[in-house]
C-alpha cells in the first residue's frame, strides 16, 4: 500500500528531476533566463549539479561555446575546477572544442586579480559578517543592536538550527527582535553577537539596502518548534550530530552557521570555571566566560580557559614518491567503499607539519617529507579547524594501524578522478567524501596538478 507521504515524496522527486532536466538543457542551449529560474539561492537546483554523464552545467555551456552562460554560471558560484569522468574541467572542454572566448572568460575569472579566487575557500569558510570584535566589550552598543527593527536572529535549539519548513533547499529562518523577544524572556538560552553585514548576500539589491544589519545567534534550551508562541513562526530544527542537512545550506549562510554553532556549543559545555569550578558568566557579547569568584586565579595572567576553543586538525593528501598515486584510508564508521585523506588532532607543542607527519606515519606507516599548505576549513561539530595539506611520501610501504583505520591504500589519478565525478551515491568502485569536505578538495587539487591521467 502506498501512503499519502510516499505519493507526495514521489511527486516532489519527479518535479525535482524535471527541474534538473530543464536546467541542463538550458545550459546546453545557452538559455540564461531558465538557468536563473531553476538555480540560485531560492531555487532547488544546485549550480554544480551533475547530469547522468557527470557533466556540470558549466561543462555543458563550455562545450557549446555559450560565453554569456559561462559568465553567468561562474558569477553564480559554479565551480570551474570540477571535472568530468575523463578528468577534464570546463576550461579544458572549451579549449578542446576551440571556443576561445569561453576559455578567455574562465581564465579571467581564475586570474589572481579576481577577488573570489585569491585562495581556495571551503564550505563553512564563507562568512560575510563583519564580526566587529573590537566592539564586543561595548555593552551599551551591543544591547542597542539587539532590539533594532532590522536586526536578525539565527535560532538554535540544543544546537540544532531553525529553518523554514517549506520544501525548498534548507536555509536559515531569520527572526526579528519582535518575533524572538517573548521566547527570550521566557526560555533559558545563550545569546551571542555574530556581526554586522548582509548574510543572504546573493541578491545585490538586498545587499545595498541591508548591508548593515546586525545578526545575533541564540541557543534555546528545551524549546522545540511546538513551543514557539506564534503561528507565524513556522519552521523546524535541523542538524543533529554531524548534520548532513547543514551541508545543504547556501554557502553564504554556512559560514555564519559555523561561527554561531561553534561558539554556542562552547557555551553549552563550558559553564563552570576550569580553574576553580565556580560558575562563570558570559561576557564580551558571547566571546568570553568569566569566573564569578573574584579571587580566582583565572582573573590574573594569561589563560586560555576563558575563550571559545578551536581544535586544530591536520588533514593530509599524501602523494606517492613517484607522484602517480595518493594515499587514502578508511575508518570503520565510514560508509562502504569510502576512503578519505588521513587526519588527526594536533597536540600541544607540535607544529602543523610535525602533526601531519606523525598522524600519517602512525596510521599508515608511510613517511612524509615535504608538505604544502592547501587551505583550511572551520568544522562546527563542535569546533575543529581542518588544516589541509599536500604531503610528499618518502617511503611507500603501508602498515595499517588497525585501531584507527580499517584499511589504507594507494589510489591512481584515474580512480580518484572517477570517484570525484561520480559523486557520493555511486553504486560501485571507490567513493570519496562529498565536495563540502576539505578532503574532497585536496583530492581534486591533486588530480588537477597534471591533467595527464
Ligand atoms: Zn574560577
Ligand atoms: Mg587520526
Polypeptide structure, described:
The protein is of the alpha+beta class and 453 residues long. It folds into three domains: 113 residues, Ankyrin repeat-containing domain (Serine Threonine Protein Phosphatase 5, Tetratricopeptide repeat, Alpha Horseshoe), CATH 1.25.40; 137 residues, Nucleoside Triphosphate Pyrophosphohydrolase, CATH 3.90.79; 139 residues, Nucleoside Triphosphate Pyrophosphohydrolase (Alpha-Beta Complex). Helices cover 32% and strands 19% of the residues. The chain is built from 13 helices and 13 strands. Strands 8, 9, 10, 11, 12 and 13 form a six-stranded mixed sheet that branches. Strands 3-4-1-2-5 form a five-stranded mixed sheet, sandwiched between helices. Strands 6-7 form a two-stranded antiparallel ribbon. Helix 1 runs antiparallel to helix 2 and helix 3 packs antiparallel against helix 4. The chain starts with a helix and ends with a helix. The protein binds zinc ion and magnesium ion.
Which molecules other than protein and nucleic acid are bound? Answer: zinc ion, magnesium ion
Terminus-to-terminus distance: 50 Å
Strand content: 15-25%
Shape assignment: globular
Reading the helices and strands in chain order gives HHHHHHHEEHEHEEHEEEEEHEEEHH
Number of domains: 3
- By CATH, the superfamily of the largest domain comes out as Nucleoside Triphosphate Pyrophosphohydrolase
Mean pLDDT across the residues is 88
CATH-defined topology of the largest domain: Nucleoside Triphosphate Pyrophosphohydrolase
Please work out how many helical segments DSSP would assign: 13
If classified by CATH, what would the architecture of the largest domain be?
Alpha-Beta Complex
At the first level of CATH, what is the class of the largest domain?
Alpha Beta
The structural class is: alpha+beta
Give the uncertain stretches in residue-range form. Answer: 201-209
Oligomeric state: single chain
Q: Round the Cα radius of gyration to an integer and report it.
A: 24 Å
The number of strands is 13
Amino acid at each position: 500500500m502506498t501512503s499519502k507521504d510516499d505519493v507526495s515524496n514521489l511527486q516532489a522527486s519527479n518535479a525535482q528531476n524535471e527541474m534538473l532536466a530543464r536546467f541542463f538543457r538550458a545550459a546546453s542551449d545557452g538559455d540564461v533566463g531558465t538557468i536563473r529560474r531553476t538555480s540560485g539561492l531560492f531555487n532547488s537546483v544546485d549550480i554544480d549539479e551533475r547530469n547522468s554523464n557527470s557533466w556540470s552545467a558549466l561543462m555543458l555551456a563550455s562545450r557549446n561555446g555559450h560565453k554569456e552562460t559561462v559568465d553567468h554560471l561562474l558569477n553564480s558560484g559554479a565551480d570551474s575546477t570540477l571535472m568530468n569522468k575523463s578528468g577534464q574541467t570546463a576550461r579544458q572542454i572549451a579549449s578542446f572544442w576551440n571556443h576561445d572566448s569561453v576559455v578567455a572568460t574562465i581564465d579571467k575569472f581564475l586570474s589572481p586579480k579576481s577577488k573570489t579566487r585569491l585562495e581556495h575557500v571551503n564550505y563553512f569558510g564563507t562568512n560575510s559578517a563583519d564580526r566587529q570584535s573590537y566592539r564586543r566589550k561595548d555593552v551599551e552598543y551591543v544591547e542597542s543592536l539587539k532590539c533594532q527593527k532590522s536586526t536578525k536572529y539565527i535560532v538554535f535549539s540544543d544546537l540544532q538550527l531553525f529553518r523554514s519548513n517549506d520544501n525548498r533547499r534548507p536555509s536559515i529562518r531569520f527572526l526579528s527582535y519582535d518575533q524572538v523577544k517573548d521566547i527570550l524572556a521566557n526560555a533559558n538560552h545563550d545569546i551571542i553577537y555574530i556581526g554586522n553585514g548582509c548574510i543572504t548576500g546573493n541578491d545585490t539589491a538586498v545587499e545595498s539596502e541591508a548591508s548593515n544589519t546586525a545578526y545575533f545567534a541564540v541557543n534555546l534550551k528545551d524549546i522545540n518548534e511546538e513551543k514557539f508562541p506564534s503561528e507565524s513562526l513556522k519552521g523546524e530544527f535541523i542538524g543533529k550530530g554531524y548534520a548532513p542537512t547543514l551541508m545543504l545550506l547556501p554557502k553564504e549562510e554556512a559560514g555564519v552557521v559555523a561561527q554561531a554553532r561553534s561558539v554556542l556549543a562552547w557555551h553549552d559545555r563550558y559553564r563552570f570555571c576550569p580553574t576553580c569550578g565556580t560558575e562563570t558568566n558570559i561576557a564580551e557579547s558571547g566571546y568570553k566566560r568569566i569566573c564569578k569568584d573574584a579571587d580566582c586565579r583565572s582573573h590574573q595572567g594569561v589563560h586560555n580557559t576563558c575563550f571559545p576553543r578551536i581544535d586544530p586538525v591536520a588533514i593530509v593528501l599524501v602523494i606517492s614518491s613517484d607522484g602517480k598515486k595518493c594515499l587514502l584510508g578508511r575508518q570503520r564508521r565510514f560508509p562502504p567503499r569510502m576512503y578519505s585523506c588521513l587526519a588527526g588532532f594536533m597536540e600541544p607543542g607540535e607544529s602543523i607539519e610535525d602533526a601531519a607527519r606523525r598522524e600519517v606515519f602512525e596510521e599508515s606507516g608511510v613517511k612524509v617529507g615535504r608538505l604544502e599548505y592547501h587551505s583550511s576549513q572551520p568544522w562546527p561539530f563542535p569546533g575543529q579547524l581542518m588544516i589541509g595539506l599536500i604531503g610528499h611520501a618518502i617511503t611507500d610501504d603501508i602498515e595499517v594501524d588497525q585501531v584507527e583505520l580499517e584499511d589504507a591504500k594507494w589510489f591512481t589519478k584515474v580512480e580518484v578522478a572517477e570517484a570525484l565525478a561520480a559523486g557520493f551515491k555511486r553504486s560501485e568502485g571507490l567513493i570519496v567524501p562529498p565536495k563540502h569536505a576539505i578532503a574532497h578538495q585536496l583530492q581534486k587539487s591533486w588530480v588537477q596538478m597534471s591533467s595527464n591521467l
